[in-house]
Amino acid sequence: MTDNRLLLSNLEELHDYDVAWPRDFRAQKPGVTAVLRVKNEARSLPWVLPPLFEAVQHVVVVDNQSDDGTPQVARRVAEESGAAERLTVTSYPFNVSRCGAEHLATPEASVHNLAYFYNWSFGHVDTAYSMKWDGDMVLTREGIETYADLSWQLESVEAVIAMPRHPLFVESDRVAYLDVYMINVEEYVFPMGEEYRHVKAYEWEMRMVPRQARRVRLPEGLCVELKYLDSDEFDHWVGPDAFGATPRTMRKLREWEVYHALREGRGDEIEGVVRIEAPADYDHVITYVTQSWLPRQARPITVPVDQRPGFDQELSSAPTGADKADKAAPARR
């Protein structure tokens, strides 16, 4: 272990799974590495990986006990994309705590904790920047070009990049639903220095960001997040009781409600859900949405809150400043 790397050990003393984290991102090779922590994503990787190979310099796939051939699919797709030498596949053989109460109860330094799992996964990066990516996130054509440009634009700066992603609920090869009322903006691209490691926070893990880092937000329309209506999309959470329990989890509550409404044939009851059907000349609705439908949509894609039906009624019934003050004031003795 060299002095220029931070060593993180685990409580279980499994030293083969200690983390070597770079202390200074400037000592790393130029470029961006996408890191995917995946479990049973064989179905999505044929859409997820090819755009990434166009957008970044390297891809790391960390498999967490898949039983559907995920590592083999990753290698096959890389080979077919002519990018086999730019793919690293490794495995993490431990059960990882699910988001919510289970995560909160797991010590941060345990191999079972989300933060430790993330730090170990990103410890395989040897470029200056890393990109947190999920095994169900697909870049659009515009997204590919944007991230490809970022790889050289970031060489002389210290910045963190946030991006909106759009949930796409896939019903079949031909039909999917896009939620234009919900937008999830997360930070995805980070320098790899010591100050940017993961910590245990709230219901999940969080990556630290020092004050000196610039923050940049990318536009909408660059990425969709796949949600299959015939799969369990919430098995990494303890359960639905955690959704909406805090402002941090309201997004997950919306996903849960839309997902179950669509599964039960009640999609028309949910405002802001757009049905998309792929034309016959497209092989799949995912291809159609990412290559044609989404790039052609006017911006903003997400409907602003003040343009949604019922907004005026909600506004008129909301407490005034005086009402809020009255409710917040302590009782007089």
Could you walk me through the main structural features you see in this protein, from its secondary elements to its overall organization?
The chain has 333 residues and is α/β, with parallel strands linked by helices. It is 26% helix and 26% strand. Helix 1 packs across helix 2 and helix 1 runs parallel beside helix 5. The C terminus is likely disordered.
**Helical coverage, percent range:** 25-40%
Helical segment count: 9
Number of domains: 1
Radius of gyration from CA coordinates: 21 Å
Mean pLDDT: 89
Structural class: alpha/beta
Low-confidence stretches: 314-333
Distance between the termini: 65 Å
Indicate the overall shape.
Answer: globular
Task: Tell how many strands the DSSP assignment holds.
Answer: 15
* Largest β sheet strand count, sense and barrel closure: 11 strands, mixed
Quote the beta fraction. Answer: 25-35%
In brief:
This protein has helices at 45-55, 70-80, 101-104, 114-122, 141-153, 250-263, 285-293, 311-317, 321-328, and strands spanning 5-8, 19-22, 29-38, 58-63, 87-91, 127-133, 137-139, 159-170, 175-179, 184-191, 198-201, 204-207, 214-217, 223-228, 273-277. With 333 residues, it is of the alpha/beta class.
